[in-house]
Design a protein that fits this description.
about 120 residues; mainly beta; Thrombin, subunit H; 5-stranded antiparallel β-sheet; 1 helix; 5 strands
């Protein structure tokens, strides 16, 4: 169907509430984090350049933020599911999110803060 024809097609009206979701919510393993971004491990690839809504979670609380996908690389795993390393650049963190990241960094042992995975 061409873009200009789409409104001419029959459309259905739903009377009752219908539930749906445009995006999923997956847990990502945090490999490293800083004020500018994070490296995460995921079983699902994210499109390069896409902007993702994230919720950073730590025992002390959580913070909402947005991040752009800057790099994606496959990672071998022994499991049947593929794994990806995804580099995220935080976009416009507010003061609460910056304080949250700083709190995470302060509680993270220096020996575990590495650029290697």
């Amino acid at each position: 169907m061409l873009q200009e024809d789409r409104r001419q097609a029959t459309r259905l009206e739903f009377v009752d509430d219908q539930w749906g979701s445009l995006d999923g919510h997956d847990m990502l393993r945090l490999c490293n984090v800083g004020r500018d971004g994070a490296l995460v491990e995921s079983t699902a690839a994210m499109p390069l350049g896409s902007v993702q809504d994230l919720r950073l979670v730590h025992p002390a609380g959580s913070a909402q933020c947005r991040a752009a996908v800057r790099h994606l690389s496959p990672r071998s795993s022994g499991a049947d599911q593929p794994l990806y390393l995804i580099g995220l650049q935080f976009l416009g963190l507010d003061d609460q999110a910056i304080a949250f990241v700083d709190h995470m960094l302060a509680g993270w042992p220096a020996s575990s803060l590495s650029n290697e995975v």
